[in-house]
Design goal:
mainly alpha; elongated
């Protein structure tokens, strides 16, 4: 179970970092408006509309992976065994024996505790 949680957490972190990177690379919807009026270059790596389709689809896939990993981590994080009573402290109290303190047989009075010369 621990290995599964570690794998889910790693996939979630990788998808989050990749999604942030892809979102920062994408242009906004108003970026093409400036290029139409001649204020910016319109050349891109994927063509005129290819980058928007590729990057937006990849971002959607990564967002889905991130969302599914988050749901699975939340499910496994709140799953509890049916045997437990619900409290962590009660389970610890049952498994650890409590030491028994035995009082002394003859209680010492206050005068007996004063050292003599």
């Amino acid at each position: 179970m621990s290995a599964l949680l570690t794998i889910l957490l790693a996939v979630q972190m990788i998808s989050a970092v990749a999604m942030v990177g892809l979102i920062l690379v994408q242009h906004g919807k108003g970026a093409d408006m400036g290029a139409a009026f001649g204020s910016g270059g319109s050349g891109s790596l994927f063509g005129a509309s290819g980058s928007a389709n590729f990057l937006s689809r990849t971002t959607a896939v990564l967002a889905t992976v991130f969302f599914v990993c988050t749901l699975l981590l939340a499910y496994f994080g709140t799953a509890r065994p049916t045997v437990s009573s619900g409290s962590v402290l009660e389970g610890a109290a049952v498994s650890v024996p409590v030491p028994v303190v035995v009082p002394p047989s003859v209680p010492a009075s206050g005068a007996a505790q004063i050292p003599s010369k």
